[in-house]
């Protein structure tokens, strides 16, 4: 069995404003991540999405995490750098279509279905070969940890639990929460997200 803990990054202005942008965690987010470091579960390997937000959170948590392009955030194409409110005011029909059709990509980037497929492929590869660069796995479960954007956590849950793709929009992932998936024999089980101790304001 492989156990994968997905940790959502610390907050910054872009997350607060629902802005399609990347920036390091703000000072308060860094402090909360550092305070939560001791609460991280034991893990054999750590990964991080390539965003500044995730890499900064991983560093604040004290992780020696491998930057993993497959775990990148949803590609929103020409909407990058803008807020959802701004895009909604300019192109309300595009936003409505994007939120209702998981195969739509009016921004010219990645569809929700493509994100779910990409993250699902990464999950399944870890289940089949959780640590290819490591020595032969011990008898106990392999334990992995990844700092990833909230959209990636949501996509992982949609894939792992076989949920309808539109459920993605109904899943809330708070900063500095951990979600655990465990997989064996063709199935994934979920331990729902919980705040890391010490990360509360």
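^ structure tokens above, recovered residues below v
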């Amino acid at each position: 069995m492989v156990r994968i803990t997905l940790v959502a990054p610390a907050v910054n202005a872009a997350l607060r404003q629902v802005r399609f942008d990347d920036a390091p965690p703000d000072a308060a987010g860094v402090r909360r991540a550092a305070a939560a470091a001791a609460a991280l579960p034991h893990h054999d390997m750590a990964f991080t999405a390539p965003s500044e937000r995730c890499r900064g959170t991983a560093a604040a948590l004290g992780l020696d995490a491998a930057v993993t392009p497959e775990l990148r955030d949803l590609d929103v194409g020409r909407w990058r750098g803008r807020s959802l409110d701004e895009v909604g005011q300019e192109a309300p029909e595009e936003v409505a279509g994007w939120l209702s059709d998981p195969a739509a990509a009016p921004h010219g980037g990645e569809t929700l279905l493509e994100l779910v497929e990409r993250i699902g492929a990464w999950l399944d590869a870890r289940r089949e070969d959780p640590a290819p660069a490591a020595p032969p796995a011990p008898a106990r479960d392999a334990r992995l940890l990844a700092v990833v954007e909230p959209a990636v956590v949501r996509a992982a849950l949609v894939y792992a639990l076989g949920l309808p793709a539109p459920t993605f929009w109904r899943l809330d992932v708070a900063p500095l929460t951990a979600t655990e998936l465990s997989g064996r024999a063709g199935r994934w089980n979920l331990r729902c997200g919980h705040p890391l101790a010490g990360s509360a304001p």
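The chain has seven helices and six strands.
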